[in-house]
Structure formats: C-alpha cells, structure tokens
Amino acid sequence: MIKNMKPCWKPFSAGMGAVILVLVCVTQTQASTAAPDISTMTAAETERTHQLCERATSRWERISEVPEKLLQAISMTESGRWSATHKRVRAWPWTVTSGGPGAYFPSKAAAMREVRRLQAKGVQNIDVGCMQVNMQYHGHEFRSVEDAMDPDINAAYAAKFLIRLRENAGSWGEAAGHYHSFTPERTTYYRGKVEKFWASLNGQPNLGLARRMAPEPEDTPSTYTIAPIDRARTAALNARFKTLKTAARELRNELDPDVKRARQMEAWRNARGRSEQLQHLLAVSQAEMQARRQRELAEFTKEDREESFAEARRRQLADWRAHRATN
C-alpha cells in the first residue's frame, strides 16, 4: 500500500508576529483502502476526480521550479489508489489520514465531514488532499481546511515545501525523500517509491509498483532533527508561496464553470448599468438642449413683439400729427 507522510515543518512564533518554519521529522502512516461508498461512483466520476490531482500537480510543475512529473510522483505516493481502468496508481484529492490508516472519499464534502469529525474529537494531526498536507504543522498557511483540501492550493503548497527542501538537499530525489521524513531508513524507503513512480511517468517501465513494494519497517523509532533556521530564505519562500496561492485561486476561477458564469453575469450587469447611465445622460442632455432652444425662441419672439409695438406707436403718432395739422 501507499504510505502517507507527516509533513516535516513545524511553525515557531518569532518576534514581530513572524512565523519561522523549522524542519522536523515526524512519523508516517499507511493509507487504507477506499471508503465503502466510493465504489458507488461511476467510471466518469472517478476519472474526473483522479484528473483533479494530475492537473494541479502538472500546473505547479510548470509554474514553479519543481521538475516535470515529480509532484505527480509524490502525489501518487501520498494519496495514490489503484485505478483498475488505467492499471496503475493515481492520486486521489479527497484523501484524509490521521495517525493511522487513511481513507478515500467520493467528494470534497465527504472528506471535509471526516476532517470535522476528527477535529471534534480533538485530533489535530490530520493530512489532507492530493499531497497529504498536515494541518497540525501547516494549517496556519491556509485560510481554512477547505482551502488546504483544494487540489490547486494543496499542490501549490507542496511545490513550496519541496523547493525549500531542495535548498538543503543534494538532489531533487533526496528532497523528495525528506518530504516524508528525515529518518534515514524512512527517507530511503520513501525516496525509492517516489523515484519509481517518477521513472514510470517519464516513460520507463512500470513494474507493478503498487503491488511489489516491500512493507516498510515498523520498528523504526520516531526522531526529530532540527535544522538551522535561515530567516531570509524562509521569508522569500513565504512570499513566493503567497504568489503561488494567489495564482492558484485565479487559475481555479478560470477553470471553475460556476465561477466563470458568475463573473460573466457580473460583467453583463455592469455593462447594462453603464448603458442605462449613458441613456440617462443622453436624455438629460436632450432635455437641456430643448429647454435652451425654447428660451432662445422666446427671446427672439420677444424682440419681434417689442419692435412691432414701437413701429405701431410711431405710425399712430404720425397719424395724430397729420390729423392735427389739417384741423
């Protein structure tokens, strides 16, 4: 079966409200088989769900410095389940693990119900999503567990985490091993699984990896290794992750048909409002122009009336004088 990681960073509070991420090795768990109700999903629904992780990991491999297919290989190791249709392991976004056998759920809502159930019991050590991000150590990086479960944001954070690990590792393969643990035996075992998946994704033969992996030793004690803190790199990494997270939301909005329709409706309403405003301005302008013309016409006719009255008075005065002269 596919083993799940407990992420290797733990936050410590520093001065001025800063958060410092310290590498800490933690234990690992084993994912269980799918939850019973997942079997009710149709082949089309199952395929669409698998594609959520694959699209997200592929997107963040392109955006970040992570090599092609490496995030996908880690996601297969973390949340992979056997696809009978494709005859290989594929990552599942609605995976929840907590200190023991994990579970696959048919929807985000179902996975979130499991998270809430665990939280209600006081459980904090919970891994979620395609990349099995741990909420106990990394939850502060997200606005909510719902965001952390989102495939795009989940993969973006995994890219950030892996890039940070690569800075202190000799290779991307070693960084992938540290994604799970810093205990040498666990690192080697996990790295081997990731590299086999990575090789298969890059065209090398898939030798039935999901069925031929030897069980991991269970007697390896949990240990903790504290690495030196590089505050400058931590600040740069956090800034980069914020950029990645913002880009993830923008990409999700572009891909989500409901969000797209809502944005189109808002644009239509705004356009309609601007059109109504223009029509109102045009009507006001026409009314003002008509009123100005009426005033000009009134002034013109007034001058004509005054001139006609003066001319009539002059004629009357001339007639009167002529009449007086004859009499």
Any overview of this molecule?
Helix content is 60%, strand content 9%. The chain has helices spanning 43-63, 70-79, 108-120, 135-138, 145-149, 151-167, 172-180, 184-201, 209-212, 231-255, 257-326; strands at 3-4, 9-13, 19-23, 29-30, 80-83, 88-91, 95-97, 103-104, 127-128, 133-134. By secondary structure, the chain is an alpha+beta fold. A hairpin with a 5-residue loop joins strand 2 and strand 3. It is built from eleven helices and ten strands.
Order of secondary-structure elements: EEEEHHEEEEHEEHHHHHHHH
For the residues shown, what is the average pLDDT? 77
Radius of gyration of CA atoms, rounded to a whole number: 37 Å
Q: Which structural category fits the helices and strands? A: alpha+beta
Count of individual domains: 2
Assembly form of the protein: single chain
Q: How many helices in DSSP terms?
A: 11
Strand order of the largest sheet: 8-7-9-10
Q: Which term fits the overall shape?
A: rod-shaped
**Beta-strand content bin:** 5-15%
Number of strands: 10
Distance between the termini: 139 Å
> What is the share of helical residues?
55-70%
Major pleated sheet: 4 strands, antiparallel
> Which consecutive residue ranges, at least 5 long each, have pLDDT under 50?
1-36, 206-222
